[in-house]
Amino acid sequence: DLKYRLPTTGYALRFDALDFAAYDVFVLKRPNAEASYSPVRLQEAEARLRTLSGEDIDRIERNLIAGLPATERTYNRETMRDALADYAAIGPAELRANLAWFLKEIVPAAEEVGSRMCIHPDDPPFSLYGLPRVVSTPHDARVRLETCERPD
Length: 152
Fold this sequence. Notes:
single chain; two-stranded antiparallel ribbon; mainly alpha; globular; 6 helices
């Protein structure tokens, strides 16, 4: 939820794993989405879906796919499924290798100009839409840092 109302009358971002699973499996109908969830989570998601109004589903969809960060493109269910299919062949090993290559190329250039690099941990620290994650645990973070560790 991009504008979750807090009891203090403020707002916050809020991730609801059941809403996400219900949307992913039963609304977006991502191919093989069921494999991303436990049988219990699938039952809970289906039960949640039955409690949602059409307006609730529209709001969840807007929050999850209508305007993804770092892009000006907007998505609908079909274009979102197509975009996810573009990444179907990229597993955790491929994503880690790609990130390692990027870090080895960019960190020295950043150091030359006095820039410091950082990486934000995966939030949430588990796969979404079946896509791999690379900084979900302290071990992941250590490995990423070691990738670009410099002797000096």
